[in-house]
């Protein structure tokens, strides 16, 4: 199946076969591919928490507003962003390893390292959050497509109580939540959705000004 076919046929699936098993290695192999998705300065900030234990998932379900797929899917994955990856130590470690592998010269390594450290040095917490969400979302989309290519169904979820979820899973505060992802063998196809026409979402050279209504609002 081509990438275009996967995108056109993909639907968010909420009903799964609770007895269907996916081997952990298959999930790990998929994550390994998804981790090659684009990310800022190659700091690799995205992390993946595989929630396998059935009793734990039963506890997570009410924290995710009792969404059925939290329990019935074969795997539940919490995608996280790690604030520690902005630290100079992480950037040095990644670039040192790339130099050892001969991917670039010492001169290039020094330039890339200093540029990345300088880029993140004076960012606000909101800026850091934006970076984590952007990189994590790219990785999540790649993971969804990879899993769909394997013949599985998925759904991404933002509907959950973050504070309660972090407390239940004992997640340190240097992590930021990106989304939950359920994957498994669907037993009921998701419904079709409507998308905007291409002319309504694409602009050439300039973004048009908003037209104001009679009340002065867009």
Automatic annotation (TrEMBL):
Family matches, as Gene3D superfamilies: NADH Oxidase
Classification via InterPro entries: Nitroreductase, Nitroreductase-like
Source taxon at top rank: Bacteria
Domain Nitroreductase: 7-184
Record keywords, A-Z: Oxidoreductase
SUPFAM superfamilies: FMN-dependent nitroreductase-like
Protein family membership: Belongs to the nitroreductase family.
The protein's name in its UniProt record: Nitroreductase
Lineage: Bacteria, Bacillati, Bacillota, Bacilli, Bacillales
């Amino acid at each position: 199946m081509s990438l275009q076919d996967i995108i056109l046929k993909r639907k968010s699936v909420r009903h799964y076969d609770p007895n269907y098993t996916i081997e952990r290695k298959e999930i790990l192999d998929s994550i390994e591919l998804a981790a090659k998705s684009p990310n800022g300065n190659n700091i690799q900030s995205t992390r993946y928490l595989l929630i396998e234990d059935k009793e734990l998932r039963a506890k997570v379900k009410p924290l995710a507003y009792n969404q059925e797929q939290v329990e019935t899917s074969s795997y539940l994955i919490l995608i996280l962003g790690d604030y520690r990856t902005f630290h100079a130590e992480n950037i040095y470690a990644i670039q040192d390893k790339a130099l050892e592998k001969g991917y670039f010269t010492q001169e290039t390594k020094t330039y890339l390292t200093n540029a990345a450290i300088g880029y993140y040095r004076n960012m606000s917490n909101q800026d850091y959050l934006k970076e984590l969400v952007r990189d994590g979302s790219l990785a999540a989309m790649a993971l969804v497509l990879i899993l769909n290519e394997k013949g599985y169904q998925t759904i991404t979820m933002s509907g959950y109580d973050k504070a309660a979820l972090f407390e239940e899973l004992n997640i340190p505060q240097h992590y930021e939540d990106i989304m939950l992802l359920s994957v498994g063998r669907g037993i009921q196809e998701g419904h079709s959705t409507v998308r905007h026409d291409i002319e309504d979402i694409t602009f050439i050279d300039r973004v048009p000004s908003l037209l104001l209504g009679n009340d002065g609002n867009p």
